[in-house]
Amino acid sequence: MTYLNGLLWTQQSWFEQASSWIDCELHQKDIKRINSIKQLRVRHWSTVLQVPTSLGKIYFKAVVSELAYEAALSQVLSHRYPQCMPQVLAINGEQGWLLMLDGGMTLRDTLKIEDDIKHWENLLPVYAKLQQDCAKYFHEFLELGVPDRRLAILPVRFQQLLMDSETLGLNQPDGLNVLEYQCLQNQTDLLVKLCEQLANFGIPETLHHGDLHDGNIFICDENYSFFDWGDSSISHPFFSLHSTYDCLKKRFKLAKNSFWFERLRACYLEQWAEYETKERLEQAFELAQQLSPIVAALRWLPVLSTMDAIHRNQYMEAVPNLLREFLSTISVR
Questions:
Q1: pTM for this structure?
Q2: Distance CA 239, CA 232 (A)
Q3: Would you kindly state where each structural domain of the chain is located, as residue ranges?
Q4: CB 3.0 to 4.6 Å from 224: which of 123, 197, 238, 315, for a disulfide?
């Protein structure tokens, strides 16, 4: 599907089709819609609708076919972990449609009222426990279509990425230059070595959210729940803090050596104490932080594939910048 199909989100015929499906699902559940459906957000790869009902606000999300697994994955997670997932009412797996109850206020909106980084200290253990339990079901998640980015296959994915000159933006403004590209090619053996080293720790690969920032976390009655699993994959769990750290840098203006980064890392790693010693967990975490820009770059591929060349140019910096980050992390080895 190209971005041209993404324009469906703004077409009246698509809106009517989605509204009809929503009304049908609500009717089957004896929920009454009490006002018109409102389109809250339109992205190249997704859209969100708000539905006022007798149960309060209900939300509908549609994604491009490349991310359609998000609906089925969200439904499974909602049923299995209701304490940390919004309640999913219905899905259309083929269309990539998802209907769910209001999950509460996002952490991002909460932080506008109470600018407290300690929320992360409270929620990261919850997320870690979720990851640990999900490790039992990763084969099931793969069958749902969740991308496979486990350590054993990551070097292959990296080599495939290096063959995609369009995504790399070779010799284009904001893209990679020839020297950067050559440096990346020279690091393929090192990447294999890093993956093997990380795999040698006794930490199970599992569900990795892929975009764990304050806009994808709800707070309701002091409980945290996680949503927007469209960037998820099966990979090393410690990769998840890459986007979290980026979020914290922007939100709280934290330096790389911030006390809070160390504290939150310790808070998260404590939950993995049954797998490795504290020292080895810290070693694994550092390896994961070196590799995490590669995994973050790979999550862009399904999204970029939905766009035509003109709209891809708007995101030209995304993958090259992450690959530059990878180069910077290995340069200090």
A1: 0.94
A2: 11
A3: 3-102, 106-331
A4: 123
